[in-house]
Structures are given as C-alpha cells and as structure tokens.
Amino acid sequence: MAQFLHKKTVPHDLQKRLVQMMKLESLVQEARQCQDRTVAVAAAEDEEVIEAVAMALEHRLGRFVLYGDRERLGRLLKEKGCARFSDVDVVHANSIGQAAELAVRAVHLNEADALMKGHVPTATLLKAVLNKEYGLRAGKVLSHVAVFEVPEFERFVIVTDAAMNIAPDLEQKVQIVNNAVSIARSIGIERPKVAALAAVETVNPAMPATLDAAALAMMQKRGQIEHCLVDGPLALDNAVSLAAAKHKRIESEVAGQADILLVPDIESGNMLYKSLVYFANARVGAVIAGAKAPIVLTSRADSAESKLYSLALAICSAAK
Ligand SMILES: CCCC(=O)SCCNC(=O)CCNC(=O)[C@H](O)C(C)(C)COP(=O)(O)OP(=O)(O)OC[C@H]1O[C@@H](n2cnc3c(N)ncnc32)[C@H](O)[C@@H]1OP(=O)(O)O
C-alpha cells in the first residue's frame, strides 16, 4: 500500500485516507519488496535482538550479519530457530566495543545498508557512529525518529527526538524536523504537519521551548523549512486533539492534526516514547535518521515486534 501512496497520481484526499489506514505491519510488507538489503547488527548476542532477527528472516526482510561472540551467537541462533536460514552470517568480535566498531565499519564500507543496535550501550554505539574515520556521518545532524501506531488513534504519531540529541538548539531542531519529515515522506506522508511542543501554546520568554517553537513555525512560513507545515508552540493536547485545539481557539492547519511531534529535549521525548508504549499500548518502529544509513536503536522497552517494525522502517527508508 505504501508503494501505491508514493505514486503522484493518487489524489491527495485519497492518499491521506490511505495513510490514515496504515498500520506498522504494512511497513513489513513494503520492506519485503526491497531487494538485497543487508543489516549489520552490533553485539547481537541478546535474546530479544535474535528474536527480532528471527522474525525478520521469517518475513524475508533481508540478510543479517551479526557481530559479537561467535559461540554465544551460535547457541542463540539455534535456540531461536535461525540456524535453518542461509541469510544470516556471524562475524566474531572479542568485545562489545569491537562488535560496535566492526558493524559500523561494515555500513561505512557499504557492505551493509542499515545498522542495528544489539546488546551495546546506546552511547557506545552512537560514539562509533559519530567516529570521524569509520563512522556514518553525512554532514547532517543525526536524530531519532519514532513512528507510533497508537490504539484507537486514526493516524501514525511520529515523535522526535527521544533518544539522541540531549538538548538541541534551534539550528539542530531545524535538522531534526527535516530528518523526521524525510522519514514521514518515506512512509507515504507527503506533507506532514509538525507540532513544535512546549508546555503551553503561547510564547513565554521564561520557557525557551516556546521561543524555539515560534521561530520554527516562522521559519517554515518563510520557506526555511520545506515539505511540511510547522506550528508552535503547541501543548501536547492541542497538537493531537482537534477538540482541545478548538477549546483553546487555536487557528492553525497543524493544531489537532499533527503527524510529527517535535519535543524540546531528550527527557520529554523519552518519557513521551515510553508513556506511549507502557500506558497506551502503542506499537513503535524507530530509526536514527540523517546518517549515511538508517540505524535501528532499540530499547529494552520495545517488544520483538517493535524491533521488527524498526527494522522494516530502516529498510524502507534506506531504499528511498
Ligand atoms: C527511545 C528508546 C531508546 C532509548 O531509550 S536510548 C537512551 C537515551 N539515549 C542516550 O543515552 C544517548 C544520548 N546522547 C548521547 O549520549 C550523546 O549525545 C552522543 C550521541 C553519544 C554523542 O556524545 P559525544 O560523543 O559526547 O558527543 P559530543 O557532543 O562530544 O560530539 C562529538 C562529535 O559528534 C558530533 N555530534 C554529536 N551529536 C551529533 C548528532 N546528533 N548529529 C551529528 N553529529 C553529532 C559533534 O558535533 C562532535 O563533532 P566534532 O568532533 O566537533 O566534529
């Protein structure tokens, strides 16, 4: 369905309705169409990661190269029923740090199309990703983009940045928006609506997030941010609920209809991410965008199913 959405011939209204019907499951179907994708998994010797790889192999999403302890990996692959697949290779690494470096190098050298985090601390992997000699920098800000399917909610909710940029400044927020817009477009949301979140919907000089949000909205209006609509500051309720926006008398093309929620910092983003998973039973697929290749940065909070969706999102966005 998502492939159909990319065709320019689809009328906008129909396109919007189809996007709204989309489920993360449809990303798995789309990823399957992408030929010959290879994913390098850093420190893959982790039960949940191997479970996600097993699911991905079952769905024929691509080829996997697992970096880590050969013996432990061999055992886990057998336990999870992966030994029967030919699309999986193991490269031995003596330590978690070496596994991260080897996996990142493989993507750097175009031997793999996407990187996946295994049993390695997030900061260790990201430091390898940012390494000047063998990393995956592409001259842009790298940022985390999470696509949520929330039960009873009619459209995807995209949250950024919940996991990489700790306290982004205005310039970094512009690039974080650009990265999220490019992921939204890769899954068929042609002109996403971006809400720059704050605690209130009015500009308050004592709350820096409201100043950045207002600047971002103006930058989009002046053409400095493209392929999307941006409004802010918006509080979470009036970003996602038309009734709440109406109640506050907010006149905006974004309020109540946001596709992308730009959070002010990593704390608010991470808590929103985990609240959606734990309190709202949301499903999620997430990647780090802006690098030479997409990166799957899974969290312990994610189910194996969510890890599969993240892999599908990475494969879909690597193909664009
Ligand atoms: C939501 C589910 C998943 C999770 O819960 S994940 C858990 C939460 N996430 C984390 O713990 C990671 C948070 N981020 C960090 O720890 C750090 O920002 C990170 C990514 C490790 C980078 O730290 P450092 O290596 O100390 O970075 P630094 O500020 O000294 O900069 C070193 C060089 O890298 C560059 N850099 C840092 N962040 C970047 C970015 N986002 N995009 C592009 N380039 C970036 C930075 O400009 C600097 O470059 P240069 O050496 O000056 O050329």
Automatic annotation (TrEMBL):
<dbReference type="InterPro" id="IPR050500">
    <property type="entry name" value="Phos_Acetyltrans/Butyryltrans"/>
</dbReference>
<dbReference type="InterPro" id="IPR014079">
    <property type="entry name" value="Phosphate_butyryltransferase"/>
</dbReference>
<keyword id="KW-0808">Transferase</keyword>
<dbReference type="Pfam" id="PF01515">
    <property type="entry name" value="PTA_PTB"/>
</dbReference>
<keyword id="KW-0012">Acyltransferase</keyword>
<dbReference type="GO" id="GO:0019605">
    <property type="term" value="P:butyrate metabolic process"/>
</dbReference>
<dbReference type="GO" id="GO:0050182">
    <property type="term" value="F:phosphate butyryltransferase activity"/>
</dbReference>
<dbReference type="InterPro" id="IPR002505">
    <property type="entry name" value="PTA_PTB"/>
</dbReference>
<comment type="similarity">
    <text>Belongs to the phosphate acetyltransferase and butyryltransferase family.</text>
</comment>
<protein>
    <submittedName>
        <fullName>Phosphotransbutyrylase</fullName>
    </submittedName>
</protein>
<feature type="domain" description="Phosphate acetyl/butaryl transferase">
    <location>
        <begin position="97"/>
        <end position="314"/>
    </location>
</feature>
<dbReference type="InterPro" id="IPR012147">
    <property type="entry name" value="P_Ac_Bu_trans"/>
</dbReference>
